[in-house]
Design goal:
Two copies of one chain form a homodimer.
Chain A: E1 2-7, H1 11-22, E2 26-32, E3 48-49, E4 60-63, H2 70-76, E5 83-86, E6 101-107, E7 123-128, H3 131-144, E8 147-150, H4 153-183, H5 192-201, H6 207-210, H7 220-229, H8 233-252
Parallel strand pairs in A: 1-2, 1-4, 2-3, 4-5, 5-6, 7-8
Antiparallel strand pairs in A: 6-7
């Protein structure tokens, strides 16, 4: 068994606590959280501490806090030469205080409060300074997920930017689609199957192969009609830029 | 039984032919196609015609051709006062020649060649001039799909624009995500579960509730780091515009 301590109480911390509690490879020794009330529904209250000085000994310390708090939490740890990882997609491993052995345990998924996830299908990006630490980290990752990857800090940065495109920006296009439906008295739910199929297509086709629509066909008549239809300046701008990008992308291939 | 004739041989026509052949409500009398070789794997060759003058009698004629060919095909039909529909998301019902009774049968999905679809889950947007025609159209729709909707030409136009956002533009963001991965030696497949979860979230949450990421958090440090990371001018522009749009959208709520 590998003993672990999670530091944090937000979305990612909560999903990790749940996954670690189910893992047969992990003993979750303790959770450090400034606000115990956010996680006492997940774990016994006596396993929660709010004081750095009472943090116990463990094989791996997982700092699952917001990006800008990682350095501070790692600085506050009252020990050295232990194995400490963070869970961020965008921060390099070196943001952690070097008094400890450092690593990264980044589950690449969009975590929403109160929405259960099948952790086994979530890729986990792993990195560590020490090879022996990596082995331990990989054991833990394999115990909760079928997709552990060795990913360097540079690769992780690229992945995180790409994830912003395929997740955050995509979701915002859903929001714009809903706004257009709402403004025209059409139920957004009609678009649900399309939206799901658009994502699942990418499991068997490349995005290039899957591309359809007026921009792909260079159907200027429809494109102009759509631009005329859109009254919202911001929606017009998004429509123009992405249409141009699809056209240019097609030319490059 | 409702007798039907499909005019067209492209993606949509092929998927409809397959669905109608399976329907217990429909007799597919004939298919009109300029190029018979594109559909003779789906239907007996003697049921295919390439000559307008040999088109048979049927309850519903379905024109499933590209948008700019619909008017021409409907003009060429050598009969009047029959029921003729098109399958386009972006064209009004009135693009059809008025010598026949007009309607629309628009399956709202992204059709890709050689990729099977569960037609029952595809919403079909219906419209007709005559109430009695509508009933017949709805019977056909219900026989192949669980989601028939009565949608006016104006509503359909809005839906089609919204579909460009949630399907065509979303797919292009996948393409950009893959380009970023490729340029940085990371397998794009790591992003698959994220991409699927991002779409399936929208079945239980609104896009506003589901929004995550640096723009949503107004995390300017990460946003600037990402912009610095992106070397491609076009990717930078997309990143800036969509980040600004997420920020502004958040303020409006």
């Amino acid at each position: 068994m590998i003993s672990m301590i999670v530091l944090g109480s937000g979305n990612v911390a909560q999903h990790l606590i749940t996954a670690f509690l189910k893992s047969e490879m992990v003993t979750l020794v303790q959770v450090f959280a400034r606000d115990a009330s956010k996680i006492n529904h997940l774990i016994d209250i006596e396993k929660i501490t709010t004081d750095y000085l009472t943090i116990k000994k463990a094989d791996i310390y997982v700092i699952a806090v917001s990006d800008n708090a990682i350095a501070e939490v790692s600085n506050q740890l009252p020990f050295k030469s232990r194995f400490v990882v963070h869970t961020s997609g965008s921060m390099p491993m070196t943001v952690l205080n070097e008094k400890n052995n450092r690593g990264v345990f980044y589950p690449l998924q969009t975590f929403t409060k109160n929405k259960a996830l099948h952790f086994r299908e979530i890729p986990i990006c792993l990195e560590s300074e020490e090879a022996s630490d990596y082995q331990m980290l990989e054991q833990v990752a394999k115990s909760i997920s079928d997709f552990p990857y060795s990913i360097s800090s540079d690769q992780r940065k690229a992945l995180h930017v790409a994830a912003v495109f395929v997740c955050n920006f995509v979701n915002h296009l859903y929001a714009q689609g809903q706004a257009i439906c709402d403004a025209n008295d059409v139920p957004f739910s009609i678009l649900q199957p399309l939206l799901i199929e658009t994502a699942s297509k990418i499991q068997t086709l490349t995005p290039e192969e899957a591309q359809t629509g007026p921009a792909k066909r260079n159907d200027t008549e429809t494109i102009n009609a759509h631009l005329l239809f859109l009254k919202d300046k911001n929606q017009q701008e998004i429509y123009k830029l992405l249409t141009k990008s699809i056209l240019d992308h097609g030319k490059k291939l």
